[in-house]
Amino acid sequence: MINTLLKTALARPVLIMLLTLLLATAGLWQASSLPVDAVPDITNVQVQINTAAEGFSPQETEQRITYAIETAMAGLPQLEYTRSLSRYGLSQVTVVFTEGTDIYWARQQVSERLQNVRNELPADIDPEMGPIVSGLGEIFSYTVKALPDAKKADGSAYNPEDLRTIQDWVIRPQLLKVPGVTEINTIGGYVREYQVSPDLVKLLAFKLTLDDLAQALEQNNSNVGAGYIERNGEQWLIRSPGQLKSLEDISQLVIAKRDDGPVRVKDVADVAIGKQLRTGAATQDGNEVVLGTVMMLVGQNSRTVSQQVASRLDEINLRLPAGVLAEANYNRTTLVDKTIQTVETNLLEGAVLVVVILFLFLGNVRAALLTALVIPLSMLFAISGMAANKMSGNLMSLGAIDFGLIVDGSVIVVENCLRQLGLAQHQQGRLLSLKERSAVVLHATKEVMTPAMFGVFIIMLVYLPIFALSGVEGKMFQPMAFTVIAALLGALVLAITFIPAAIALFVSGKISEKENALMLALRKAYQPLLALSIKTPLLVSAVAILLLTSALWSASKMGSEFLPQLDEGDIAMHALRIPGTSLSQSVQMQMQLEADIATLPEVARVFSKIGTPEVATDPMPPNVADTFIIMKNQQDWPNPAKSKAQFEDELRELVEQIPGNKYEFTQPIEMRFNELIAGVRTDVAVRVYGDDLDVLAEVGEQVAAVLAAVPGAEDARMEQSAGLPTSANT
């Protein structure tokens, strides 16, 4: 089969060139639509169930809501495990399925169980499934803020309530229409609401109850249709509009009738526009803002979706009130573009190095260029395979390709073809015709095809065991193995089709039958070493064993980690205050913290999420904040030679001077992965199980102390399990 393919390639070289061009075109087209991200998506298949339980203590939430939902999920097909979190007013149950489970099928199974468990939950408790996102889902965030001199139509300044209203009713609905966006998570500001504050003394005087007031509000806020009538050949719709439109409408509602007249809402209560109690806030550069986070649907192209969101946000800004601005503060496109640039740089540098090295050793520019073409062609072949298997491109997969391995087979073929062509020209005493060159190339390629193929196959075999990995490690490394094997396979096909045909077709000039000066010099230096090695095999073996032993000893002293840490460029800092710290106090402390961080010249901006956002994908108590420090490009730093690690040390020294805070340092994507996979933000977590909360807290403190003493451990702490002040009124 290989011989037939080789003969066909040399018999129809123009056809091979056209097919290669077609392959390259298909690869370029696939590359334009290939999902690209910075790192592989290692999130497990999971469904989050969030339940708002206003007024429920953590213990009540656990007993009456979380336990019921978690128990109802037991026995689901392909269920791996469940974990839960119960906070004041919020229950979150995470249902994790086995790898390979279709996420939509999994959500359907969870939805069916939720329908059955609703009857067991307290009244007005409605569990909801979280958005269909992964650890790479938070691709874009923006702040809604007003310029210092911005004024509303009545001349007053914009407040957080106004900004939240603009976010909820103007910006969010338009961004949700962007293809690939599944949710816009909002935090910060205040949700506007109509508030009816009853006067209990007046209610008692009129012999009314709170239920009477609530019933009047509920029953007098609807429109009623009564069909239609026909009159004089016309059809008239009959409607009774009763929807409340203003504070005055609410105030005039009748609650009951007395002999001296109706009792209206205004007689027993104050009606005003107020603010809904909030569970979270957002700040940026020391000021309170409204923050929106764009969440991408699983499987979409983060770069494409981010670019479309940024474009739509620019359009929205043109229609916002004067002085109000929605400004991007985190865009995944920046990191993805850096990843693509890294891959492109590696590709270009690899091709240049191959051309230079081959020219130095082969002495033929055309042959060197033809061999270098195997690099991009093999990459495009691999990208086509990735697209066909619905894999995403990232630094781990695309950056793992070794260009030396790719061109190995082609170099062997090219070198032997040039040597045989040079000898044939020397024997004939003239340049060879295309037919003669094809015959020589066929013979030369056959000579080295077997060792070239075996060399490539051996490299492929090295990567095959990676496909046996499962779970997180499988998701991380299998795309890399697939890409390398696909690129090697493409390079092998090119080595037995494109390279022989191109050599026969394009290498038509004079070829020296002798080795060039560089090869002669290297051979002259190598021959004595080879002769010495043959004469003293025991000495050579002893030296090799000694080097191997020393290398193994050195390797045993090296540290190791499961995954290489990608430098995302930005920093995520987890700020923790004393349990029981109010949201307003946390906001004040966070604004002071941000103001200090913003003074660092390497920082472009800093923004934070405090507490729990509207969609509780990442629930936090009010005393905890996620702080995102967006860095300037390193060339714009006052000292570009400073490393990120040095900056982190300076940052840590700065923030630790601020009293009342503890910190954990990580990166945005890394933190999100840790949250979704293990339910914690750190790299290593130790779970302690038991029934007695006091004993658990005591053991947890002991474990934290042991972990803090481990060399290399930083930010070791025990997660809060108690301490929220509670006032019980009976």
What layout of secondary structure does this protein have?
Blueprint: H1 2-11, H2 13-33, E1 45-52, H3 58-73, E2 79-87, E3 90-97, H4 103-117, E4 128-129, E5 138-146, H5 160-175, E6 181-187, E7 192-198, H6 200-205, H7 210-219, E8 224-231, E9 234-240, H8 247-251, E10 254-258, E11 261-264, H9 265-268, E12 269-275, E13 280-284, E14 287-296, H10 302-317, E15 324-331, H11 332-362, H12 365-372, H13 374-388, H14 395-398, H15 403-406, H16 408-428, H17 434-463, H18 471-496, H19 498-506, H20 517-535, H21 537-556, E16 571-576, H22 583-597, E17 603-611, E18 624-631, H23 644-655, E19 662-666, H24 668-678, H25 693-708
Antiparallel strand pairs: 1-3, 1-4, 2-3, 5-14, 5-15, 6-14, 7-12, 8-9, 10-11, 13-14, 13-17, 16-18, 16-19, 17-18
Helix pairs in contact: 1-17, 1-19, 2-13, 2-19, 3-4, 5-10, 10-11, 11-12, 12-19, 13-18, 16-17, 17-18, 17-19
Indicate the CATH class of the domain at 2-33 and 363-514. Answer: Mainly Alpha
Counting DSSP E segments of at least 2 residues, the number of strands comes to 19
Quick one: biggest sheet?
9 strands, antiparallel
Helix content: 40-55%
How much is the radius of gyration in Å? Answer: 34 Å
Written overview of the protein:
Helix 1 (2-11) packs parallel to helix 19 (498-506). Strand 2 (79-87) and strand 3 (90-97) form a beta hairpin. The strands form five sheets. Strands 5, 6, 13, 14, 15, 16, 17, 18 and 19 form a nine-stranded antiparallel sheet that branches. The protein is of the alpha+beta class. 49% of the residues lie in helices and 18% in strands. Among the domains are: 2-33 and 363-514, Up-down Bundle (Multidrug efflux transporter AcrB transmembrane fold); 44-133, Multidrug efflux transporter AcrB pore domain (Alpha-Beta Plaits), CATH 3.30.70.1430; 193-275, Multidrug efflux transporter AcrB TolC docking domain, DN and DC subdomains (2-Layer Sandwich); 571-708, Multidrug efflux transporter AcrB pore domain (Alpha-Beta Plaits). It is built from 25 helices and 19 strands.
